[in-house]
Amino acid sequence: MGILLDRLAKKKLLVSDGAWGTMLQAQGLSGGDIPEEWNASHPDAVRSVAEAYDKAGCDIVLSCTFGGSSAKLEKCGLGDRVAELNEKGARLSLQGAPNAVVAASVGPTGEFLEPVGDLTEAQMEAIFSQQIAAIFKAGVKALCIETMSSLEEAACAIRAAKKLNKSADVICTMTFQTGATGYMTMMGVSCEQAAKGLTAAGADIVGANCGNGPEQMIAITREMRKHTNKPILIHANAGMPQLVDGKTVFKQTPADMASKVKDLVAAGASIVGGCCGTTPAHIAAIKVEIDKLRK
User: Fold this and answer.
1) Crossing angle for the helix pair 151-164 and 121-137, nearest 10 degrees?
2) Can you give the pLDDT at residue 239?
3) How far apart are CA 202 and CA 161, in angstroms?
4) Interhelix angle for 82-96 vs 121-137, to 10°?
5) Mean pLDDT of 123-146
6) Is the Cβ–Cβ distance between 231 and 271 less than 8 Å?
7) pLDDT confidence band for 251 (50 / 70 / 90)
8) What is the mean pLDDT of residues 68-93?
9) What is the pLDDT at residue 31?
């Protein structure tokens, strides 16, 4: 049992952090900026996000390393800075959130495995290994592999993490969309398949993030809970996205999101945080409800 599972065993329910992109955009991150590059050029801004979530009472804080794979960074001309930017991002969260467990963020590569794409599983795993090795070098003891749509790609990331550090706690979450046949990822993975597949791949904690507000996440959590005995983490958006004056906005208030915490936990979630549109205020409101349920 690693540091994160140990905290979960002691506290029974945990509070995770909220959106990073939303917070960095408020500090000037533009659509043309590379968030991971800010780990080097704007370290105080990045560290302040971790600090804000730490002050909100989070048990888990992520990092500004979501798009830190070589597959992503090479497209931005930063392919030679994978180790630097990931290690710096992880260290900034460790510095900013001393009271939380830092579970560094690892997102999808944007590439596809054979036969849909060109990468073999060995190549995909090597891409993740490069990124995750830099994260572990910083001293992080947990990972949050998130926003996955392919079980095979998720499994590559989980394997890479476990080979590099067997004692690290690995979270893996997928992103679902609703359709005629229920909730599925972009690659056609159902909630049942995700729960079973991520568990079989060796994830210590499974779950869902992004794509849905807390109302939809209740149904997703309930379905995943039927098919795994692993703890479930849920990072919901602040409601479903709405287009206002050409901009995507998320309108749920902290009170709106907090009102769904009891139902999420009843559905099977052990860890609740937020994704797009959520802020430390949302997380602080969620923590109030989690604290009630712990009693």
Assistant:
1) 50
2) 75
3) 10
4) 50
5) 98
6) yes
7) confident
8) 98
9) 84
Domains identified in the chain and CATH numbers: 3-294 (3.20.20.330)
Integer Cα distance of 124 and 118 in angstroms: 10
- Residues 236/280, Cβ–Cβ less than 8 Å: no
Query: Two tokens at 235?
Result: 């990072």
**Residue with tokens 């979530």, as numbered in its chain:** 53
Question: In this structure, what DSSP letter does residue 151 have?
Answer: H
Predicted confidence band of residue 180 (pLDDT cuts 50, 70, 90): confident
Torsion from C-alpha of 65, 138, 60, 193, nearest 10 degrees: 60
Which pLDDT value is given to residue 229? 98
In the chain, where does DSSP find H-type helix?
Answer: 3-11, 21-26, 38-41, 43-55, 70-73, 82-96, 121-137, 151-164, 191-201, 214-225, 254-258, 261-267, 280-294
Closest CA to 231 of 159, 149, 172, 291: 172
pLDDT at position 228: 98
Q: Predicted confidence band at 242 (pLDDT cuts at 50, 70, 90)?
A: confident
**Tokens 């329910």, residue?**
13
